[in-house]
Amino acid sequence: MGKRTSGGVSQDSGKRKKFKLSSGFLDPGTSGVYATCARKHEKQAAQELSVLFEEKLEEMYGDELRKINEEKDVVEEKGDEKGEDLSIEDEVKRELTQLHGPNDSANQGQNKQKEILKFIDLSCECVIFCKTRRPVVSEQFVKSIMEDLADPSNKIKRTRYIQKLTPITYSCSASIEQLGNLAAKVIQPHFHDPKVTQNYKFAVEVTRRNFNTLERGDIIKKVVSEVLNGSEHNHEINLKNFDKLILVECFKNNIGMSVVDSDYITKFRKYNVQQIYEKKLKEQKEE
């Protein structure tokens, strides 16, 4: 038998209930993608996911990113031409910058571009996060990847450790007030935009990890109220046959949110990469 402490709790029982808590944090306003993965393979999962993301980044935003970089170069060149008009203080700053050499400046430019996709260490088992910056729109970005992976003609299995992807359009601190502001911002183009001409059936899905600040029911009520009261549309809740699904991801002190279509369930298996591949494999065997 296990030894008991003065409080009457078995020490062996305490060891069995020991869990590893994550130590990473996400700042409010963060956009990106959560990914679940095989346990103890978080680094490998991040590596294979970075390959997928870099390829999709080039495909979707390559031209736009190159244009942005070209415009920055033009601005910097004009700044150099106007160097004679700089104040003494600005002139000193420019000379200090030039002392680092052109290679450092080039590396800084490369680092800025790399930060468009930046993996953040959450120190959380089976979960990784990739922070995205403009021009990436995480909802569109992840769905495009799912479409590629679900394509029947694409028979190559691209991942081994990645399981499920969840886009995060924006995020906020864990409070009811901030949650309301976040919901209003994220759902607006899907439910309240003037271009929206139909009434949608919708549902809310909440996932909580190391999170106990707000109750699941309170989160759902707040999000639902923002949808129903935000416009003149007659949107309605339907948990089984919905047109739109609002995903709410709660991690420690952060709440992230995005909106996906019904094909999230029907076609893309909740964006579960493994299940999409298994479905394709089964269909190929039946042919």
Automatic annotation (TrEMBL):
Note the SUPFAM superfamilies from the entry.
THUMP domain-like
A single BP term in Gene Ontology: tRNA modification
Which gene specifies this protein's sequence? TAN1
Q: Where is this region: Disordered?
A: 1-23
The protein here is known as tRNA acetyltransferase tan1
Instruction: Cite a single Pfam family from the UniProt record.
Output: THUMP
Q: Which domain of life is it from?
A: Eukaryota
Q: Which InterPro entries match?
A: THUMP_dom, THUMPD1-like
Identify the residues that the record assigns to the THUMP domain, covering every copy. Answer: 150-261
List UniProt keywords, sorted A-Z. Answer: RNA-binding, Transferase
GO molecular function of the protein, one example?
RNA binding
PROSITE patterns per UniProt: THUMP
Asked whether the UniProt record includes RNA-binding among its keywords, one would answer: yes
User: Could you confirm whether the keyword Ribosomal protein appears in this record?
Assistant: no
